[in-house]
Design goal:
6-stranded antiparallel beta sheet, 16% strand, 30% helix, SMI1/KNR4-like, alpha+beta, 161 residues, 5 helices, single chain, globular
């Protein structure tokens, strides 16, 4: 699939009819969060905006002020507390600031990026699963690939249960 992005693949199965460009001031959002954000997340937000994808809520970077509850900035402390309390992904050294949320799912599951370095486009997805042991799982893919794989049942087991 030369030239196709994960977002292109997602658009093939999930139309953007109800999408809403959040018109994010990315410089302000990244300054507030203290980090750059992955380009596929920014592209996703431009096409779909924040909101629900099946049972998964994609968080905007900052509160929108339009009645929508939840944002990366509002969920960061909670996800980092879960990371610190549960020890993170087995084999990955825990650090209170090692994760950044991008979504929340059914059953109280939380999704985010493992901030493995200064290049956000290289951050893998991590999922905190309320009813699993170990609670944390690592997925070596980007956010849009993760959502595409979730929507096409391309995981051996649903990663957010």
């Amino acid at each position: 699939m030369t030239g196709r992005t994960d977002l292109d693949e997602l658009l093939r199965i999930m139309p953007d009819d109800h999408g809403a460009d959040e018109r994010v001031d990315w410089s302000a959002a990244e300054a507030h969060l203290g980090t750059s954000l992955p380009s596929d997340y920014q592209a996703f937000m431009a096409v779909y905006g924040g909101g629900a994808v099946d049972n998964l809520v994609i968080l905007p970077p900052l509160p929108t002020g339009n009645g929508w509850s939840g944002s990366i900035s509002e969920h960061t402390r909670q996800l980092r507390d879960l990371w610190a309390n549960d020890g993170g992904v087995p084999g990955v050294p825990p650090g209170a600031d090692a994760v950044l949320p991008w979504g929340t799912g059914c059953n109280g599951n939380e999704l985010g990026w493992l901030m493995t370095g200064p290049a956000p486009d290289l951050w893998p997805v991590v999922v905190w699963r309320r009813h699993e042991s170990p609670r944390w799982a690592l997925f070596e893919c980007r956010m849009t690939e993760f959502i595409h794989r979730l929507m096409t049942a391309d995981f051996d087991k649903c990663p957010s249960q």
